[in-house]
Amino acid sequence: MRPTVRYLLETEAHVYALAVAASVLLAFFPFLTVMLSICRDVLHWHAAEQAIYLAVSDIFAGKAGEFIDYHLRLPWYIPRLSYTSLFLLLFTANGVFEPMEVALNRAWGVTVNRTYVKNQVISLGLILACGGLALFSLMLTALGQQFIPAATGVLGDILIFLQRLLFKVAAVPVSMLALFLVYWLLPNRKIEPARVAPVAIVVGLILEGLKYVNMLFANVLHEKLDREYKIFEYSVTILLWSFVSALVVLAGAHWTARRDTADPLS
Question: If 0-12 CB within 10 Å is exposed, 13-18 middle and 19+ buried, where does residue 204 land?
Answer without folding.
Answer: buried
